[in-house]
Design goal:
single chain; 71 residues; alpha/beta
Length: 71
């Protein structure tokens, strides 16, 4: 799996999704949802070091998602 930075937005709704994502991306940073996605991306983009990055949400079940996809 290619290494891209990973941000997980935590809506405090499903710890199972967060745990699953942290198994796939142990280096991921988890942030609580604040105001809007647009605001979060603007603030977080300064900390992204890779050309592409994963921006994931605790609201989505990723168990059947292909994380080998290269954006």
């Amino acid at each position: 799996m290619p290494m891209f930075d990973c941000v997980i937005v935590d809506f405090k709704n499903n710890k199972n999704n967060i745990n699953y994502l942290l198994q796939k991306f142990p280096y991921a940073k988890v942030y609580p949802f604040v105001d809007s996605f647009h605001l979060m991306i603007r603030k977080l983009c300064k900390s992204i070091k890779t050309e592409y990055f994963w921006f994931l949400s605790s609201k989505i079940d990723y168990t059947n998602f292909n994380f080998d996809f290269i954006p």
